[in-house]
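Lecture 7, part B: from sequences to assemblies.

Below are the input chains for today's worked example.
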Amino acid sequence: MSPVWTLLLIAVPLIGALMVAFGTEDRAYGSSLRTMLVTLIPGAMMLWQFDFSMGAVHQGAASVNWIPDLGIKLSIGTDAISLLLIILTVLLGPIVIAASKTAIKDDRRKYYAWLLILQAAMVGVFAARDLMLFYICFEFTLLPMFILIRCYGSTNRVAASTKFFLYTFTGSMMTLAGLIYVVYFVAQQTGTWTLDIATLTAIAPRMPIEHQAWVLLAMLAGFAVKVPLFPFHTWLPLAHTEAPTAGSVILAGVLLKLGTYGILRFAIPITPAAFMEYAPVLGVLSVIGIIYAGLICWVQDDIKKLVAYSSVSHLGFCVLGLAALNVSGLSGSVLYMLSHGLSTGGLFLMIGFMYERYHTRDMRQIGGLASKMPVWTFFMVFFTMASVGLPGLNGFPSEVLCLIASFQSDAAWTAAGEPGAWGTTLGPWFGVFAGTGMVIAAMYLLIMVGKICFGPLREPKDHHAHEELPTDLSRREIWTLIPLAVACLVFGLKPVYLLDAISDPINQIVSTATAHSVQPLPENHETHTMMDMIQTQIQTQTEATP
Amino acid sequence: MINTTLLTNQISTILAMAPDTTASVLSQTPTEIGTGPKWILLIIGLPMLTSLLCGLYAIIGNKTKLPAWTTVAGAGIAFLATVAMYLSFDGTPYTVHAFDWIQVYFGDKAMIANFSFYIDTLTIYWMLFVTGLATLIALYASEYMSHDVGTSYCRFFGAFGLFVFSMACLVMGDNLLMLYLGWEGVGLCSYLLIGYFYKKPEAVAAAKKAFIVNRIGDLGLALGIYLTFVHFGTLEYAVLFNDPTLLGYIEAAKTGNFEAIPAIAQWIPILFMIGAFGKSAQFPLYVWLPDAMEGPTPVSALIHAATMVTAGVYLIARTYPLFLTSEFALPIVAWVGTITALLAATIAMAQFDIKRIMAYSTVSQLGYMFAGLGVLTPTGGVYHVLTHAFFKALLFLCCGAVMHGFAGQLDLRKLSGLKNVKGWGIVTIGMLIGCINLAGVPFTAGYFSKDTIIAEAFVTPGTSMIGWILLFTAGLTAYYTFRVFFRVFMGPVEYHPGDEHHDDDGHDDGHDGGGVGGFHPHAPGWAVNSVLITLSVLSIAASGLYFVGGNKEAHTKHYAQTMVMSSTASYDSPYSKHAIHAAQESNDPNAGVGPRGTIDKALEVPIIGGDPHKMMYYISAVVGIVGIALAWFLHLFGRTNAAECKMDPIAKRFGPIPKMAENKWYVDEFYAMIFVTPLRIISHIFHWIDKLLVDGIVNLFGYLPRIFAWIIRPSQSGILQGYAVSMAGGLTILLLVVFVIVMQGGVS
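Predicted structure of the full complex, as structure tokens:
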């Protein structure tokens, strides 16, 4: 696979952003939509050229020295997992632009330009093979989202954006501290500075478990807030509720996945022994999150807040799968990252379309839309069912795998207990309690659909028809939903494509992590002191300079 | 590719354990072993196709009955394909692969659940009546739903097709996840169809309740499936039921040695059972089914009487080997079934809505089926499924015809003597045939299938109490069944049209005149009548199955038994009649040992001094007839109008009891009080905790630096650039720190 496609995926939106920023207000929508549609081409080419038989290898790798003294490079490359997440991002791009056409009326250039920049940053996170590049992109996603919420959100947007920014930023500063320690440790062990993720993950497990535990805690401080894991979730309902539709879709679809992706890419490989030790804690927190957030959904009147809390509940399954630390769990978790983006993204779009017409999200004021908006209702029920985890749609395979994983993850319960391959971190009780999330999800989502779609028609008193939009969905709106709906069906009926694709990298992560945690690598005690390293570095520099 | 190899491996494993059949099957080429012809996929594919076509019709705005004919044709061809599958079946189960679905590989192990279908006699038996009834009921619905022609008509038949598809997946799937797919799929269709009249709040609430209560059961099923995979390492029937571990457990169970079976394996059937209780509306999860009658009547007939609700029976029959490995599972199934049968019958006695009476009788009859499974006669349970499917569908369709003709009237106090109204002859005869089956009048199909269950309850040690309760319930059943018949169809002619139109808002043209005088009921047309006639014939013919289809070699007595005994549901009960005879003749001291203890080899367990299998014919005939006679005396004899009968003064003597039964023993209210309300309170508490405590702590941390900043700095800019700068600044500072460390190291 050629690295050109990945670079194009980052460059095209940035160029598009410039064009939008220096263009006119009226053309902002059109040119940003065109830009996003153009990015589908490199996306498709990546998918086309990627060799899935070597899914664990980072393909399309390219690297340029950036700060050579510290071993910082600009290096990119994608394995199967990051490829699929990039594809999800690229797929959502045009959808969120198209969904914003009538919703955003003022200051459009800024809006679309920041959306495009956000797109580039998200692709950058998944493609980065260098820790510094990863972290910069990881943090940089905050800024466009902050602006989208701050400037284009609804009534309580200032508080929401501030909390979103400060909370996640504070968390990720701790992550940075942890990662810097890892870099320092690896430098000590090898004698050279490097921020190459592959090297870091190969050497870092040599850390003694006490150090690993601290590093893990630091990393989770950022990632858990991002996911968000109970009890670090309170920014999310606020941010989701206030964000414009496009912001909510991106937030649910991609930005939350940065947290789980971070755990998968960094927390597990870098600190396997500590992760195995503390996985039950993560498991408990995710199970609490599943039930707690699910029950909170049940008593919401604000439909957008309901879906936002449902994200907290759903992401609990995702983290549970990771905490199981076995193949089915990690597979399920990666599948969850992809599928949650589709179904919850779809739900946010539906809510956005409704909000544009009625200017309320309060389920007490609005109801029985089926008789007025049958097409809207069809898609609403469809995405709700996808979210509930109906077999045949996307939510089901991932949910099943995460739950099976937590059962498997206890050697005592298997007939032929093989702790290595199956993981030993969780146990059936995690699965049983998390499973109640299935029932709770059915409760709150069906009650939501029952209130909003069915029953006698209820509309806000001062409601009058939207001047630009038809009563039911317009053709443009339907076209934003169809790709998501088709993807939901394909994921649900042929998850085997995805599972095959991610099988190699997942097996590799699990086997390395379990091997390292069962038998930790010996620490290299002849550490290179800081002074040695610097001296060698100065030497090489003076030798290099004539 | 991987899949084929794996399947071959599995088949060879199976063959290794079945030495008798090895020779015959091995003669085929290895790739062909165990796979069936692809045209069998028509049975699954056609209903899906019709569903999609109905969606297409809705999009192009079709305003004809085309969706109905498409669905009838699709289901009909699926039925013919099922018949062809039946006729071409040679006794060896096989699988048909559609496409790969979920596959996860862990090293040398794998979790595989494909879109594949497993065909054995149980599958065929179930699919025959599912597709057959679907065809008939689609035909009925073409007329019944005719005043909704348009988008709603498409919606109805779209969901109908999807239901048949899901049911086919449930019954035919070759692994537990496919079963689960069908299980949830029928749940979805049930949800969509109960809520068909979505403007009615009751219908919406009923649909929601059905889905959520079912989900509780589904959780049990799902957990059971996970445990099965974790313990036995497979989800596919072909591998699971030949798993040496499982076979070992069953051997242990047959001698009552349950200590040899790990607790985890014993939990699996208990979890499955919870799923079955949800889907098949057993106590304590039965509450959704009566409410589900808000859906259109064809839906009640097909989904909530004949097919979907029997999915629980199918599940237990299909996984019967797993149930045998648990010490408690089958006794619980038996007792829950019995309690449900009795409880629902008592409620049915006091209801006035005839469709609800039928709903409770469905719950009650499903209880019989579960009791049958529980007392070690899967044959009885499965046979009752078939007979019940026919006569209950017939009863519902008759009720539907009444409801349709009388503007939604279902109250038996407001309808009387329909027998003598012009055009209602076929409905009356159909109703009568349904009622005699349900009441267990001698020589009807319902009589034979019910007797099989009750007799076996007396034979199996320790369950004679179940037998007595079921017998008593049979009497109640006869009473409430004929209460409906004698009130609605016999006696003086009197009818009041319904003021509430259950079916359609546009239906009230010309009917709203109200009153007996101005109202003209419209009698059913040819589609409804032809379906009623067909179902009547089938209901009667089902009794013939009790006398044909036996297989001497397999020691089976009749058709249903033959079908069950050559499937995974086969369980050669040590208490079955022929086993008792075999034990009597055998010299083996353990010949009469079974999971519930040892039977007396010398004597069969007698009931009132006779062989229970024979005595039951007489006893239950008497019980049934007494029930009918009571209904005749109390509800027909001397009745002069629709509303009053001899029962009214008698009911008063029972004090509050009839009222309590009419209010369903307040079970719904009890659940609301015990589960729903506390959970809602907890949810509200969580919501406040989230707002105040969890978020409060976050805000507190947010304030600390602000206070700090307030002291040391005049103010924060609060504008966008400030944050961007601080972010970049933070990064720079951190990088600087690293640089400083480096430089300091370099200097010293």
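Note for the exam: Chain A has a mean pLDDT of 86. Keep this in mind when comparing with the next example.
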